[in-house]
Amino acid sequence: MAEPVSHYLQRRRTRAQRPVILALGLAAIALLGSELFVTIRPLLIYNASASAPIGFYRVLPPGLFRRGELVLVRTPKSVRDLAAQRGYLPLGVPLVKRIAALSGDTVCIVRHVVRIDGRAVARQRAEDTKGRPLPQWSGCRTLGLEEMFLLMAGVPDSFDGRYFGPVSARAVIGRLVPLGRP
Q1: Which of 70, 81, 114, 154 can pair with 176 through a Cys bridge, CB separation 3.0 to 4.6 Å?
Q2: Spatial contact of 47 and 57, defined as CB atoms under 8 Å apart
Q3: Residues 68, 150: one domain?
């Protein structure tokens, strides 16, 4: 017995849709598995970490960066993972850090002394407060166009650029304006 025409057309249409559905599914999986999501910039954050002044901050869009400015930054995955494993920050929480050097500045760490353009600004520790070894970024590097070095120079225990080196300016979620303590 012959198959009804409507059933035949429906089955044919379903077959034609399979590659489209498969392609959309694969694209969704690839997008979910990547870090290409657009970061939604919060308007307000609360910093509870002692490495930066505790309190509320207004988050402004990234723009023209200045040395000394506080920024909210998403560090590379390896840095985020280490910070979470060690209990420095929960996984996925961005860092609040000060910009110490920008494009054209030379950052050096030699024998645990951090220098920016030849001026000693901080020391690098070999271990954290629990005696665990810290990553040791070292050498000299003149920062490129889209690079910055983050450093909380007055906070010896801060987990910052002295351990993970320069970061991309594209990692900055926003510039921070302090609003005060609760």
Answers
A1: 70
A2: yes
A3: yes
pLDDT digits (tens, 9 = 90+) for 62-106: 989 999 999 999 988 999 999 999 999 888 889 999 999 999 999
24 and 92 together in one domain? no
Category of 92 on φ-ψ map: left (φ > 0), alpha (ψ -120 to 50) or beta: left
Q: What is the pTM of this model?
A: 0.76
Sign of CA dihedral 115, 117, 119, 121: negative
**Position 34 confidence tier, pLDDT thresholds 50, 70, 90:** very low
Q: How many CB atoms neighbour CB 77 within 10 A?
A: 9
Q: Give the Cβ contact number of residue 32 at 10 Å.
A: 8
How many domains does one find in the chain? 2
